[in-house]
Amino acid sequence: MVKKSGSSLQARLGVVSRCVAAIGGGYALAALSSVVLALTLALPREEAVMAASMPAFLIFAAAVAWAFCARTAWLAWAGIGGPALVLALAVWWLKPVVTAVAV
Amino acid sequence: MKKTFRQSMAWLHTWTGLLLGWVLFAIMVTGTATYFRHEITRWMQPEMPTHAPDRATVNAGLTRLQEIASKAGRWGVELPDARSGAASIWWQEGLGRQGFKREVLPALDQAGPTPQVRDTRGGEFFYRFHFQLQLPHPWGRYLAGAAAMFMFMALISGIVTHRQFFKDFFAFRPGKNNPRTALDLHNVTAVLALPFYLLISYSALVIFMHMYLPWAEKVLPEEKEAGSRPKAAQMAGDKASSEQSASGVPDLAMILRLYDKAQSQWTTGAGPGVRRLEISSRNSPEATVAFSRFDEGGVGMQRAAKLEFNGITGEAVEQKAERKGIVTAIHSVIYGLHLARFAGTGLRWGFFFMGMMGSVLVATGLVLWTLKRRNRHLSAGRVPFGHWLVERLNIATITGLFIAIGTLFWANRLLPLSLAGRGDWEVDCFLYAWGFALLHACVRPVGKAWREQLILVAFLFSGLPLLDAFTVGTYLRSSVRAGQWAHEAFDVAVLVLGLVAWTAAVRLAGRKVKQSGKSPTRPTASQAQDEPASEVA
Amino acid sequence: MNRHLKLLERRLEFDQIMNGVLLTLIFPSLACLAVAMPVHHRRVFGREIAPAGRTVWRLLGAGGLLAALGLVLTSRQWTVDLVAWTVMLAVAGLVLTFLLTYVPRVLPAVGLMALSLAPALAWWG
Hints:
The complex is a heterotrimer of chains A (103), B (537) and C (125).
Chain A: H1 2-5, H2 9-40, H3 45-69, H4 73-102
Helix pairs in contact in A: 2-3, 2-4, 3-4
Chain B: H1 5-19, H2 21-34, H3 37-44, H4 55-68, E1 74-78, E2 88-92, E3 100-104, H5 124-132, H6 139-161, H7 179-192, H8 194-207, H9 209-212, H10 215-219, H11 231-243, H12 252-267, E4 274-280, E5 288-293, E6 306-310, E7 316-317, H13 326-339, H14 345-380, H15 385-414, H16 422-443, H17 446-481, H18 486-510, H19 527-535
Antiparallel strand pairs in B: 1-2, 1-4, 2-3, 4-5, 5-6, 6-7
Helix pairs in contact in B: 1-6, 2-5, 2-6, 2-14, 2-15, 4-12, 6-8, 7-14, 7-19, 8-13, 14-15, 14-19, 15-16, 15-17, 16-17, 17-18, 18-19
Chain C: H1 3-35, H2 38-45, H3 51-74, H4 78-102, H5 107-124
């Protein structure tokens, strides 16, 4: 299995790139999704934290699966980086609102 | 990344399963043992007396506290449940962890000096190892979390990879020299307890989510809680208390009266009664007496019900109502299912059994990795270092862990009772034995290493009941007379495990093992490897 | 003996009886599902299975599992028993697998014995 994909340097780099996308990108996506959920859910603090963090692990898992089944490494990155970017923007937009409400 | 989705998932299954497989195996086995954590502790501390969770025990505990810790700011009495057996008392003289002491209550019905209870970590060792892996905080928990995430991924990709197992349902084909056997065992153990594996890996992540994903918590502003006393003030209160006169000390008779009140309030509904009582800020006007209740059954983890009284007047203190939303309920069920505290004896054995199936699942997975690649390397005439390493780590982990556990139990019986730091010595024995197993696995040929380690496991485990009878036979007999079977159940369980290891070793020896012996890195016949994993648990 | 301990013990007892009933219902049901599969049917009965037979065995098996599930859901502590149901499924499945491997011919006898134990246990409980 590894021989076939690892026969050329490019394929090896592809695997490394996907691993980084899966672990680093997947974790970032999960973390961002938990933050966005926590900021948008209208629940008491403790519950909002739980409701935001519990599904994040599933999102992490989905991102990892995507990272390794996308056709090219570029697609793998796009599929994870795209949603992460959207979520990051959402955090950037939500954060001042929430702090304003709290104060 | 492969041609098809399924091939990609197979690749993912292979590597997520392998990379942290050894860690996962150790977590699985120690977690399985943790289901019987209290029973293991009782076996490892046979001198431990037993108490009933009743008024007499509370009275004895309070009297003892009065004798040895009359100045302490905080007192506590913990009553035993049917599994843990002994009541304990604790007290705290200073601030924080310092000055905190705990002791097991001596037996109530016994005259004369009570025997010294041996110093050991008991079942607590397995419990801690299960998520901390003897590593410095917080790295053990992070590694365990990574292992849980890898397991979760391996499960999801494994479902896709091994889809055909529904066709082979209930099929186990024991064969010789055949990876099929290991694969069958891998499939059978996987599919039958699949919900269990999905649950324990996911819930492991959820239990420590404040460590693994702290971001939601960080981004939300803290709620300002009205009414509850800040921690610092409470601490200061405790400190001030020790300097005050003893006039405000809640007297024993009143505490017992409050105990009766709490006990009857809880048990009238046919529920469980008081599990622990805690007296805080003794020696101060703010003294409180608090009672908490035994688990009330049900799958969800819930905070134990609490009753609090003013320590001077004996008036009930109003409890803040707990908010309970649907999210909290879901979280508590996921949490509670992992810990399985609700499980009675029968169900507990069921969980134990599934834990063993999980250990077999991981072990067969690890062994399959080498079996599938072995022939290719043999025909190529060269075994790469990676393959050599995986084979050795498999042996050192699968049989090596059991050698280490067996050694821990032997050390518990053989180390002198007076040895300073005895509990730490036991753990050291565990670690040295594991190190020895790793060394042994590296220097012996693969087939021989499996067999010799299996024989050692068999000797250690099947010898334990004998050792037990010779060293603490009197306690063994008295526990039988008292109708407490945990001690015997332990002996029978380790005997069964030992016999399983014997069988595996004998079957390995009975086969003709291809042994080239030219190169130490050359793997031996596959049958040398597919068996142990199937038998070990 | 203290009242609390007694209650605790009664709870344990009840738990064990429920588990017993579950195991005795789940095991024969799983066995029915197994003999609905041609490979296992051949090993157990020594002859090929008829297409109609497959349906009957399947219905019996699924019916038994659902009956056990129904029993679980009516229980006072149904959350715990639902967990017990899935645990028993795994345990019974493994036992069944090894029976099918090593002594397939005794399966009908073992299954019937388990089945007859179920009402006895239920009545006793």
